């Protein structure tokens, strides 16, 4: 599995990855497929194997703003880990996508049963959330902010 800054697998020890993969199933999405919608129930998540997925944010009175594009190795979906388990963004397949899908409730149960693995998963997902928040902020400033309002060095 490819490891990226937004990769879940790279942060887990081999035995943790093996336990997590017990809950995995292969899925695919055609280009243009909506994978999930902002505000709906987050009951699963994916690790992208091939293809790319855009994350978007509803902007009232405008088209949804694309805030990030995910690639192979990236975690798709983090809202499954935090109550109230609803998507904070939307996602669409930019190209044909193959991914590994996980049932969120079962993975949360695994995290409860194995606190060391649960901490590793929670910590990595929190890092991914922070990265995505910064990416979304930068992208929205690029789209809607006054010129020169992006991130400062």
From TrEMBL:
<dbReference type="InterPro" id="IPR014710">
    <property type="entry name" value="RmlC-like_jellyroll"/>
</dbReference>
<dbReference type="InterPro" id="IPR050397">
    <property type="entry name" value="Env_Response_Regulators"/>
</dbReference>
<dbReference type="InterPro" id="IPR018490">
    <property type="entry name" value="cNMP-bd_dom_sf"/>
</dbReference>
<feature type="domain" description="Cyclic nucleotide-binding">
    <location>
        <begin position="8"/>
        <end position="77"/>
    </location>
</feature>
<dbReference type="InterPro" id="IPR000595">
    <property type="entry name" value="cNMP-bd_dom"/>
</dbReference>
<protein>
    <submittedName>
        <fullName>Cyclic nucleotide-binding domain-containing protein</fullName>
    </submittedName>
</protein>
<dbReference type="Pfam" id="PF00027">
    <property type="entry name" value="cNMP_binding"/>
</dbReference>
